[in-house]
Amino acid sequence: MRALVMSDSHGWTNEVQEIVQRHEQEVDIIFHCGDSELKKDSLTAETVNTVRGNCDFDESFPNELTKDVNGVRFFVTHGHLQNVKMNEMILLYRGLELGAHIVCFGHTHIPTAIQKDDIILVNPGSMRLPRHGTIGTYAIIKKVENQIEVIYYTMDGQLEKNLSKIFLINC
Predict the structure, then answer these.
(1) Less packed terminus of the chain by CB within 10 Å, N or C?
(2) What's the CA angle centered on 59, arms 85 and 87, to 5 degrees?
(3) DSSP letters along 32-63, please?
């Protein structure tokens, strides 16, 4: 199982399409964790599962979504409604409630990959407006047997080894 996860592209259309084209043949699913600031028809609707962020005005995007991908349950949201800038507890509880293995979110613009209560929380960082760093990022989540690897990349596709992490998971 492989998932491409991006967030906070804030109006970038070409850059989102470039990353999708770069990885679409190697992943099973693509998520955008909100604040795309685009209309639903400007994203490749069939390939990018997008949630609504606080800067998105297209109401056709859902606030959250849950997807099962090859035995891994994802819960995806932007995070502003779960107050992720304060802490991740509401996000974690919602993930537990939905039986998620991996929770993907944005909003903080900070790349994050942590494991709590058997759930892996992943923020791919911001593509356009990164915080706590000077480069935009996105992530690919890969499951092999009982390991989940969260691999971060810069916008030009360069591996960010210092951000990438491996977790053990039961799913």
Answers:
(1) C
(2) 10
(3) E-S---S-GGGS-TTTEEE---TT---TTS-S
Average pLDDT over residues 124-138: 89
pLDDT tops 70 at residue 56: yes
Alpha-helix runs per DSSP H in the chain: 14-23, 89-97
Q: Is the pLDDT of residue 43 over 80?
A: no
Residue 45's pLDDT band (cuts 50, 70, 90): low
Cβ contacts of residue 81 below 8 Å, gap of 6+?
63, 64
User: In the CATH hierarchy, which top-level class contains the domain 2-168?
Assistant: alpha beta
Residue 121 structure tokens: 């929380």
Q: What is the structure's pLDDT at 39?
A: 80
Domain ranges of the chain: 2-168
